[in-house]
Specification:
Layout (H helix, E strand, L loop, with lengths): L1 H14 L35 E7 L3 E3 L4 E10 L4 E4 L4 E4 L6 E4 L4 E5 L6 E5 L11 E5 L11 E2 L10 H6 L1 E2 L9 E9 L14 E4 L6 E8 L6 E4 L2 E5 L2 E3 L6 E4 L3 E11 L12 E3 L18 E11 L4 H6 L7 E3 L4 E5 L2 E5 L3 E3 L7 H4 L2 E4 L2 E5 L3 E3 L6 H7 L7 E3 L3 H4 E3 L6 E4 L10
Parallel strand pairs: 1-3, 2-4, 3-5, 3-6, 4-7, 5-8, 6-9, 7-12, 8-12, 9-13, 12-14, 13-15, 14-16, 14-17, 15-18, 16-19, 17-19, 18-20, 19-21, 20-22, 21-23, 21-24, 22-25, 23-26, 24-27, 25-28, 27-29
Antiparallel strand pairs: 10-11, 30-31
Length: about 425
């Protein structure tokens, strides 16, 4: 305990004084979720498809709002082609053929919706459900921390393991300024195909994207796998939404370097994967895959600010006791993770740290939780497999970190829930004065 206390004071001197009055959780003078999001996608009639997309797209193509498209099987944009999509366009994933859309390395997508005319990727099933189709894949030429520069996402898609598909789905290189295009005001619904109880695709897989790629105002709802899966690369995202994902809401791995800002994850205990899905999973490598990693390369670095992570439950304590609610954030070994000005509300515990992480100056300095609002969490920060978190509690409750610990109901804490147009901003009050 004495050694831990010494570490705390060293780190506090390093971090300095944190401003406690900055706005916490998702921000905005108005509710930026209005107009372009959809929290009841099964109630929306998108009509019937009028055009088919299948095979390879090898030349520049524009999808127009006047048509509705269906993806049949795996569709690949190749040969450096640009796929442009007009605002308001609807693209349906065919559930029978396990469809997906892949923007291969060197190609790009320009999906620029607007607040009043978002681009929608959804299922063509008459009875939509999570995992109806495979999802959207963007592949780039930026680095990862893997031993080899070139890898294939076919490793994550058992039905893509053909020589042709493996060749088309390689990613990774050394071009940090690579550009895979734009995703803006886009919704992706009912994606993340589950292949077996261990493997599911992600609604959006972003592998080795360069920092010229633009991603903002993207909503994923009802994914059977991860909502957003970032592998390596340099990916900045803001105004993102993950709603009722069975997998992780935001997964970062293999040397991903990401800034994520003003974003939201809403979990449901009645929809989540019980094996341990989290809102944010930040790791530098998958467990038991250390042999695939080049430890001379930089690990995963995540800088997250103004994030709101929330579990919506009919009976939170009961659902936690039944094992339906897990931790909000998982931080892996050799991972730099900074979370500030954010809300974690309604979880078994707020943050869990990989048990391989040694508690010392170097590693604790990599994990910063500052100006946080921890609400209705059964414990806050734990080392994996260790139920005694007194040392961590003493650390993060130090006033210099400006963290707040509260027990408000969601109705008390947030502006408006349980609505077709919810508002997940905190109500206007000084959370810093409610430190408990």
């Amino acid at each position: 305990m004495k050694n831990f206390t010494k570490l705390v004071w060293v780190l506090l001197l390093t971090f300095g004084t944190i401003k406690s009055q900055e706005q916490v959780g998702i921000i905005g003078a108005n509710n930026w979720l209005r107009n372009w999001t959809e929290f009841a996608p099964n109630d929306v009639d998108y009509g019937e498809s009028t055009h088919i997309l299948t095979g390879d797209i090898t030349e520049d193509m524009t999808l127009t709002r006047k048509n509705t498209y269906v993806l049949l099987g795996h569709v690949f944009v190749t040969n450096g082609a640009i796929l442009s999509i007009e605002p308001g366009t609807v693209i349906m994933g065919d559930h029978k053929s396990n469809s997906s859309l892949t923007i291969t390395k060197g190609a790009s997508i320009l999906a620029e919706g607007t607040e009043t005319a978002p681009i929608v990727f959804t299922s063509n099933s008459s009875s939509k459900k999570a995992g109806d189709w495979g999802g959207l894949i963007l592949l780039g030429d930026a680095p990862t921390n893997k031993l080899v520069n070139s890898n294939s996402v076919a490793d994550f898609y058992p039905n893509m393991k053909t020589p042709e598909a493996i060749k088309k789905t390689n990613y990774g290189g050394n071009n940090t300024a690579d550009n895979s295009g734009i995703l803006q005001y886009v919704r992706i619904e009912y994606a993340g195909r589950r292949f077996n109880k261990y493997i599911a695709s992600s609604a959006i897989l972003l592998a080795s994207l360069g920092d010229k790629t633009q991603i903002n105002n993207v909503m994923v709802s009802y994914s059977a796998g991860n909502s957003f899966n970032v592998i390596g690369g340099i990916v900045d995202m803001h105004s993102m939404v993950s709603f009722r994902s069975k997998g992780n809401d935001y997964k970062f791995n293999n040397g991903a370097r990401s800034n994520i800002h003003n974003s939201l994850a809403i979990r449901s205990p009645y929809f989540s994967d019980r094996r341990g899905s989290r809102c944010i999973l930040a790791t530098s490598y998958d467990k038991n895959k250390e042999l695939e990693v080049d430890f001379s390369k930089e690990g995963t670095n995540i800088f997250a600010k103004n994030i709101t992570l929330i579990t919506q439950s009919k009976s939170l304590d009961s659902d936690i006791n039944m094992g339906l609610v897990k931790e909000a954030v998982y931080i892996g070994n050799n991972t730099l993770f900074e979370l500030s000005n954010s809300v974690i509300s309604g979880f078994k515990s707020a943050v869990i740290i990989d048990d391989k992480t040694k508690i010392n100056n170097e590693n604790l300095a990599k994990i910063k939780l500052t100006n946080m609002y921890f609400n209705n969490c059964k414990g806050n920060v734990f080392l994996e497999g260790n139920t005694n978190n007194q040392n961590f509690e003493a650390w993060y409750k130090n006033p210099d970190f400006a963290n707040v610990f509260d027990r408000k109901s969601h109705e008390e804490a947030f502006i408006k829930l349980n609505s077709d147009r919810p508002d997940y901003r905190l109500k206007t009050y000084d959370v810093a004065s409610n430190n408990k």
